[in-house]
Write a structure and sequence with these properties.
By secondary structure, this protein is α/β, with parallel strands linked by helices.
Length: 294
């Protein structure tokens, strides 16, 4: 059964006030217009909703049954409109961000602080998984955006915006640094034990591409699941590694690891990925705008 919402609204206000005149005043319409709306609704429902008297109107049993559910529905609509307005005003909301822990700590955190300072009531949810799994979640809408190393290949389902340059470097602890510092090129370094991230990480893909561009091959001595682990293994003397300089400032300052100079390595970018479907919430869009404008 299709019933006009405006008629139900008039019914709700008349029932709430138990008066057609009071309802007309609240709706800012004439009393005959209210009476006509009630008659149209009763005709549509094929039943009487009110008992009219000189004192006003009272609900019939059928009217009481209808009012119970309409009252609940009107309250839900009012609550929904209030929540919608709060979200538009950014008084409430949530943004779901996918990133690996090392990017969250060293790249994303300053942006999140600015965002939180500006919109303190917006809940921030960080999802830490592999980039591949995060992109799968982004595609189905489980998260709003992914902050990641910008890949070389085009990702057809996403828009990618690179917002910060990062510099990759070869690193070693003091033992391997002494062995490696006399090396003037990457070819010489590859004679030492090499620790790399497992495929298909973007950092590993970039490392492999770098070597391929110089016609170099290598047998990795160790493959690890994350750059955090790579840094730990290098610091503990398992070999030399290929890491992002922006992620190792603490270890460099404490002299747990050292950068091996092999000449300039091209920089790459960290960026954010969003769905091409364009279904960002206002909370998420404000974070994207903040990152882009910095």
């Amino acid at each position: 059964m299709n019933v006009n919402y405006d008629l139900l609204k008039v019914f709700y206000i008349v029932a709430k006030n138990q008066s057609i005149s009071k309802a007309a005043k609240e709706l800012n319409v004439s009393q005959p217009a209210v009476s006509q709306s009630i008659q149209n609704l009763e005709k549509s429902l094929a039943g009487q909703l009110f008992i009219r008297s000189k004192k006003g109107v009272t609900l019939t049993e059928e009217g009481k049954a209808l009012f119970t559910d309409v009252n609940e529905g009107m309250n839900l609509i009012a609550n929904g409109l209030e929540k919608f307005q709060e979200m538009r005003n950014l008084d409430v909301g949530k943004v779901r961000i996918g990133a690996n822990p090392i990017i969250s700590k060293h790249i994303l955190m300053p942006y999140l602080k600015k965002y939180h300072d500006k919109y303190p009531n917006i809940e921030i949810e960080l999802v830490h998984e592999s980039t591949i799994n995060l992109l799968k979640q982004l595609k189905i809408g489980s998260i709003d955006l992914v902050v990641m190393s910008v890949p070389r290949k085009v990702l057809v389902d996403f828009e990618i915006y690179g917002f910060q340059d990062v510099q990759d470097v070869f690193i070693a602890n003091s033992k391997y640094y002494e062995k490696a510092k006399s090396s003037s090129n990457i070819h010489e370094l590859l004679k030492l034990p090499i620790i790399v991230e497992k495929s298909p990480s973007i950092s590993r893909a970039y490392f492999d591409l770098l070597l391929k561009s110089r016609n170099l091959e290598y047998p990795p001595s160790m493959e690890v699941d994350s750059q955090d682990l790579l840094i730990d293994f290098v610091a503990n003397g398992f070999g030399i590694g290929f890491a992002t300089q922006e992620y190792i400032q603490d270890e460099l300052e404490s002299k747990k690891i050292f950068i091996i100079d092999v000449g300039q390595i091209p920089k790459r970018k960290v960026g954010l990925a969003i769905s091409k479907k364009g279904n960002l919430s206002l909370s998420a869009q404000k974070l994207v705008d903040l990152i882009k404008e910095v």
